Structure formats: C-alpha cells, structure tokens
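pasting for ref
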Amino acid sequence: MSDVDRAKAFYVDRLGFRLDADFAVNDGYRVIQVTPPGSECSIIFGAGVSESAPGTLRGLHLVVTDIEKAVTELAERGVAVDGPFQDATGVFHHAGTTDRVAGAHPERRSYGSFAAFDDPDGNSWFLQEITQRAPGR
C-alpha cells in the first residue's frame, strides 16, 4: 500500500470491513488485518508485509450471495463499482474488461455474475455471486 492509513480508511470506513488488528511494529513494518462482513477470511496489508508494488494486485475475489445488493451497498458507500456483469462465455470472466456483458447472469446461476472495483492504490477486486456451491466444494 502506498498509504497505509488511506488503505485502512477505505477498507474499514468505506467498505465496512471489520478491523481485526493494526500493529505498528516499527517505521517500516505495520500489519493491518481486516475481515469483510460475514466472512471468515481476512485480508492483511500494511508496510513491509509484501514485496508487491502498490496497485499491482489483480483479480482478487470476494464472494457474495446477492450481487445486486452488494453493488448497491458499495455504491451507497461511495465506491465506484462496475457491474453487475456476466462474461459472454457464461463460464467465469476474462481478465480485464474483455467480453463483459452488462447485467447479472439471466438465470442468476451461481458463479456466473460479477462486479468489479478498485481500491485507492488500484488493486482490483471482483465480487462473484455464489448462492449454491458446486458439488464437492
């Protein structure tokens, strides 16, 4: 993250993620852990926790049970969201914006509807609607 406090404000205040930890160990090492609402998976970011350059993470996914509700909630929180959309192939989604078709999957098939947004550094996230897991998952 290019600005840890800005990232923390985005994820906690803007997105509504729960703040689990904020450990400022020293000048070059700070660990922030946040958890999306309703999730048991957390996200860690900060200073000195990754060798990746700010804004280079692409294709991170958050699973939601109602894509339209999630898009509305994010927009109400001031987040620029692209979607919902589906892929022209109906399978998953392509990298970037290739073959996006506006609107949720017409049958609201699990794994078939998406939305996308970027954090302040330009790291890109996808929301994926899953209401029923595929067998064995």
